[in-house]
Amino acid sequence: MVVLILALLAQSPAPAAATPPAVTAAAADRRNVEVPDTDTHMVLADFATKDAWEAHRARVRLQILTAAGLDPMPEKTPLHPQRFGKLERDGYTIEKVLLETWPGFFLGGNLYVPTTPGKHPAVVSPHGHWNYGRLEHQPLASIPLRAANLARRGHVVFIYDMVGYNDTIQVPHSFNGRRETLWAFSPLGLQLWDSIRVVDYIASLPEVDDTRIGATGASGGGTQTFLLAAVDDRIAYAAPVNMVSAYMQGGSYCENAPGLRLGISNLDIAATLAPKPMLLISATGDWTKHVPQEEYPAIKRIYDLYGAGEKLTEHQVDAPHNYNQETREHVYRFLDQQAFGRTDDGKEKSAPIEKLGDMLALMNHPLPAHALNYDGLLADWQRVARAQADATEDLVVLRARFARVLAVPSLAHVSRDWMGVISRGDGDRILSAWTPGKGRPLVVVHPDGVPAGLALPEVEAARKAKRPLLVLGVFQTGSSVAPRKRTHNHWLTFNVSDDQARVHDIAASLAWLKVDGGADVLATGAARYWAAVAVAATGGSHALAFDVNALSGDDQVLEEQCFIPALQRAGGLRTVQRLVARSDSWPRSSSGQGSLR
Which run of H or E residues covers position 142? Predict the structure, then answer.
């Protein structure tokens, strides 16, 4: 019998100058070495064909929806729109609007409608992190002037709140936590849902031609603009302002849901709009200063795959971060061209700036009695998540959704070297001890790594039975522990959690085995969660050699033992139990740990 790696290494001391495989593997593991954050320089990959891009585009779209907690999409319940407080102005009207975008959750905004008859194109217009939100009026940004000028030019315009601003105050603007992360409950998800429901509302208006709906916003509103355009095909054209950048991906929780930018950036997201018309506005005084030389050419390569390079345009303003008059005038011309097929000089005209009380929907107009607070909204979000997972009868669909949440990487290229290090592609490194044999393989995962796994009595029993045996030292366990930067506020937006990486390692190791009949997976302690989740996501004929029903699906337990963004949103342990099989070689025991024959 030949037992490779750590078992041999433990018996034979290495030369003094040698570096132990564990140290080498952990130090070389890309997940420890490359830890991107919101300020990491990002590059949009090259795509040789339109088909290759469109396959990537589909993945990006699903990644956005998964990170936002919108996969599957929640039910679109009645909006119960409240439209009131009309102001008559020269060439347009303004009304206050409240929309019930989720039962008990209300979004505030203002609707600007041209006074000309007939159907009009529309613009949905989220705002950035300005002090007054959608009502900001100052030299660097005036949202009311933008809306008034567009309405005079013939566009129906809806300006609406970020969560936690103005009329949309049932939850704070910035919130996060390990519980919320498990349920994919985030400001980004709520705002993207609000934006989708805004399009529902705008498209339903008798004044609107729903084939001509555009979107524009700056800063955080720019992020909302390209996220919405990426997932909602009803957006026909867009002008994200001062936000598409290879150098900064957004600094707020409302722009950085966990899992959003694993392997992608805002360039990938913005490029999903191709081949629809898009105007990229940048500024010399912020993180978009390189757009004409870097981001615009990169995204244009995607447009060129469609033969539509002319549909992507850009303009840079010599100013700090802004949506100032020069920027607005370029956007007016762009939106006019898309909506009407004509344009003029785009010069902005003055318009009255309304009193805040005349614009705020909740001024002397309280929320309905059934309005939810933060805890109530989270509880209802959790209820919907459980119901959607439980109602999904097709296990293929359920498994695919679960795999998206886990962000399981490609397992097409998994190898194992002579030192026992299993590698996925050129990045992940997994320590292992392998003993060939006959029959169904046993894969062992211990939370303290390979030596602890080798010491299990079940492993000795498998050796005596001459079964194939693979003992794993998964990410950041035992001798695989290595320094990893986790200090950036939004690090889970760009990096998988430790437990998520452990699941990836188990999935990759099962792929390396290449056994048609599957393997039995034995795990102890917290590793039982990682193994159960890995088998649930990968499918095949693999079975668990422990009682998955003994595992707790409570939030607090998962926060400590299996912390994976959106795990609960996908159904958590209830879904895992539906997707895994139990090994016939494992008899049920009162302890729930099991034993192997």
Answer: strand 141-142
Q: Is the pLDDT of residue 594 over 50?
A: no
Q: What does the pLDDT read at residue 584?
A: 56
The label of the residue with tokens 């913005």 reads 270
pLDDT above 70 (res 477) = yes
Amino acid at 86: K
The DSSP code for 58 is H
**Yes or no: is domain 76-386 CATH 1.10.357.140?**
no
**Average pLDDT for 224-235:** 99
Q: Quick one: pLDDT band at residue 22, thresholds 50, 70, 90? A: low
Q: How far is CA 206 from CA 117, 124, 209, in A?
A: 11, 16, 8
Q: Are 166 and 133 in contact (CB under 8 A)?
A: yes
Taking the CA of residue 231 as centre, how many other CA atoms within 13 Å lie in the half-sphere pointing to its CB?
29
Comparing CA positions, the residue from 557, 512, 515 lying closest to residue 532 is 557
Q: What is the pLDDT of residue 20?
A: 56
Segment 381-409 mean pLDDT: 96
Other CB atoms within 10 A of residue 565 CB: 30
* Among 413, 465, 411, 464, CA closest to 440: 465
H-assigned helices in 106-256: 143-152, 178-182, 187-204, 220-231
* Sheet architecture: strand order including 92-102: 82-89, 92-102, 105-114, 156-160, 120-126, 208-218, 235-241, 278-285, 312-320
Helices (H) and strands (E) in the chain, counts: 21, 19
Q: Which two tokens stand for residue 163?
A: 């969560």
Q: Is the pLDDT of residue 583 over 90?
A: no
Other beta carbons within 10 Å of 517: 10
Reported pTM: 0.93
Q: How far is CA 345 from CA 247, 301, 310, 447, in A?
A: 32, 29, 20, 66
Q: How far is CA 322 from the centre of its chain?
A: 26
Cis peptide before 587 (omega within 30 of 0): no
- Assign domain 6-34+392-582 to its CATH architecture: 3-Layer(aba) Sandwich (3.40)
Average of pLDDT values for 437-464? 96
| Beta-bridge mates of residue 110 | 96, 159
pLDDT digit string, tens, across residues 480-507? 999 898 888 899 999 999 999 999 999 9
Looking at the chain, the domain(s) classified CATH 3.40.50.1820 span: 76-386
Mean pLDDT value of segment 298-314: 99
